[in-house]
Write a structure and sequence with these properties.
disordered C terminus; 2 domains; UDP-N-acetylmuramoyl-L-alanine:D-glutamate ligase; eleven-stranded mixed sheet; Rossmann fold
């Protein structure tokens, strides 16, 4: 997994490095500026061929100091550079003031209000106004600067106006960058909410800080050991029971069942109401079938100790869901609750929470989340007016704590939280962006993947993380044009790639 830092953690890491004597603040600023220039030329090699024109917007803090370094380095390469500062140069922090003075020996510093005058002919606009420490909305000239247009825009650390911890725009104005260059490690806001759209592409520049621990983590590819199957018969690898809806509403559960099989569950049974048995039988071959019409029938089915995981919700029906959820949770086995199994408790979420146990995984999208956790969802949807703003991470953690089980809050910025406070982010952004995954039935496949991994014995948090990664990877393998029925068919290729990598011999250093 990859560490994600909050603004406070990044400040602490820089302060620790400076106080230890390992580096000076001015040296960090120089490294940051060089990192941005290197990233710009790596992203846009054509800019390195012929000196061009840049407009650099500098803010009143250390982010502005990085901007002065960038201006100087571009000027050294023969570029025409116009620098515009928000505020009084004499009120800059010490290191930023030093770099401002170095720039002023090379060129002028104009007020930010005049930046638009310098833009004609500029190939690059550098946003060094505000970085990770922004805690209030942009106003005046800073807000107006967000409307400036250039051929390419690079943001230093974070697009100005964006909350580093939540990825939300604070207030109404924020810069939209084509490339964002951050330092040492990505921040939570680079992967949450509006962050990826505002950042454009993301590059991370090493500025020589030591390791930082305690941050959130991005979900990484699952370990091959979690995916491989050893010796044994089918029930050695788990048996998943997935309930369907009535006639005409069985497709969602069938998608989940096929995904559970493909991910390695030894057996999968579809629990089907009598009126839908013929429909389901016409569509399935590898999945088994059992008549499960009501809670009593579900309790009878669960008398089979070989059933190791359940999935309820996809196409289940709102009327049937409450009694079936109660019976499923009472069995104490690993259980995925999705779709109708969540929405059925709108207005009475406490009734659902009373049934849940630590082996449950809830998989709401934003609408279902709002039905179960209306107060938490309201905080997340209220416009951010200060930073750090309430984030999707905060929301998922609060919800998992209230529910007492693992919760996967879906989206391109999927957040997975456990009731003990553990939390990870699965980001389908930047190189892993899969907009074609926004298709009907994709969430049902994800529920099936989690169910299959739970059936095989993975703990809830690990099952949710692995499923989220595999879900996106399968979509990436297929590419544009994807529909939900394509996803499970891509899993063999994804699994082969993961297992093949695990078998490759280690190279000697």
């Amino acid at each position: 997994m990859t560490e994600l830092l909050t603004a406070a953690q990044m400040r602490a890491a820089e302060r620790a490095a400076i106080e230890s004597g390992a580096v000076t603040g001015r040296a960090l600023m120089e490294r940051a500026g060089r990192g941005v220039v290197d990233a710009v030329f790596a992203a846009w090699p054509d800019l390195a061929q012929v000196p061009q024109k840049a407009v650099v917007l500098c803010g009143p803090g250390n982010n502005g100091g990085d901007g002065f370094v960038i201006a100087r380095l571009l000027k050294d390469r023969g570029w025409e550079v116009a620098v515009h500062l928000l505020g009084d140069p004499e009120r800059l922090p010490a290191d930023a003031r030093t770099n401002c003075a170095r720039w002023r020996a090379m060129g002028e510093v104009q007020p930010l209000e005049r930046a638009a005058e310098a833009l004609p002919g500029a190939a690059l606009l550098v946003d060094a106004l505000f970085g990770t420490g922004l805690a209030r909305p942009l106003q005046g000239a800073a807000a107006a600067a967000c409307a400036l247009v250039a051929q390419r825009v690079v943001a230093v650390d974070l697009p100005s106006g964006l909350c580093s911890d939540s990825g939300r725009v604070i207030g109404e104005a924020a810069m939209r960058a084509d490339l964002t260059v951050t330092f040492h490690a990505a921040k939570c806001g680079h992967h949450l909410a509006e962050g990826p759209a505002q950042c454009g592409a993301l590059a991370i520049a090493d500025i020589g800080l030591g390791p930082v621990t305690g941050g959130l983590r991005l979900v990484a590819p699952p370990q091959a050991a979690r995916l491989a199957k050893g010796a044994g018969h089918k029930y050695s690898h788990g048996h998943a029971l997935i309930l369907t809806g009535g006639a005409g509403r069985t497709g969602a559960a069938r998608l989940a069942a096929r995904a559970a099989l493909r991910i390695g569950a030894g057996a999968v049974t579809l629990g089907v109401p009598g009126a839908a048995q013929q429909e389901v039988a016409c569509h399935v071959t590898a999945e088994m079938l059992r008549r499960v019409g009501d809670a009593d029938a579900l309790r009878d089915a669960l008398a089979d100790p070989r059933i190791t995981a359940l999935c309820l919700g996809p196409g289940l029906g709102l009327e049937r869901a409450p009694a079936l959820v109660a019976a499923a949770c009472a069995a104490g086995r690993a259980t995925v609750l999705d779709a109708d199994a969540l929405s059925a408790f709108e207005g009475a979420p406490g009734a659902l929470f009373a049934h849940l146990h630590g082996g449950c995984v809830l998989t709401p999208h934003s609408g279902e989340f709002a039905r179960l956790f209306p107060d938490i969802a309201a905080r997340l949807s209220t416009p951010a007016t200060s930073g750090p703003a309430f984030s999707k991470v905060d929301a998922a953690r609060a919800a998992a704590d209230r529910a007492g089980c693992t919760l996967l809050l879906k989206g391109a910025d999927t957040v997975i939280a456990a009731p003990d406070g553990r939390c990870t982010i699965h980001s389908a952004h930047y190189a892993r962006a899969v907009p074609w995954l926004a298709t009907a039935g994709a969430g049902d496949v994800l529920a099936g993947l989690i169910t299959g991994l739970l059936a095989r014995g993975l703990p809830p948090m690990a099952a949710a993380e692995s499923a989220a990664w595999l879900h996106v990877e399968a979509a990436r393998v297929f590419g544009p044009g994807l529909v939900a029925t394509d996803l499970a068919g891509q899993l063999p290729a994804v699994l082969r790639a993961r297992l093949r990598g695990a078998r490759e011999p280690r190279r000697r250093p």
